[in-house]
Task: structure prediction
Amino acid sequence: MDGSSLRTLFSEEKIQKRIREMGTQIDADYPGGTLHLVCILKGACFFMADLARSIERDVVVDFMGISSYGRGKTTSGAVKLTKDLDTAIEGADVLLVEDIVDTGVTITYLVNVLEQRKPKSIRIATLLDKPSRRLRPVKVAYVGFEIPDEFVVGYGLDYAERYRNLRDVCVLQGPQVA
Ligand code: 5GP
Result:
């Protein structure tokens, strides 16, 4: 209707299979104890829900809100905290759960904020990674899929708050995202 179209990049089955593998890897990598999952709202909440259930050890689940792209497709470069954690992370093994790492600006900012709270460790898990777009060097411990420089929606990812409930990850093409 608005001239946009969706092309499936990763099907629901492929996403779920990959998340199960990531959960197994995470369980194997941490020596023991509780893992503190920090979900970056809003896009990562679908991924977080499935990843948490793919991990067998005890997890704590918490959320951070940040200002994001708004209605457009390009980042402003500015990151603002809109919701802080409810729980303390001092001495905790923290796994930051992101939907997509693009320029790396957002995740770098969040890691800096959380490091000041003296966690035992901080690692990053992202469903999608666009390494070709990086402006900041970011060490991502767990990557679901690397993708090229295309704008994707679905499985939590939005365009102007739409498409989050798609079960697949799709490339959005059309006049409004050109
Ligand atoms: P970064 O700070 O790494 O440039 O951007 C990270 C954030 O940008 C993601 O959490 C996501 O909100 C948004 N973003 C980056 N690329 C895409 C994309 O292809 N699709 C959507 N929907 N959001 C994206």
In short: The first strand starts at residue 5 and ends at 10. The chain has a mean pLDDT of 92.
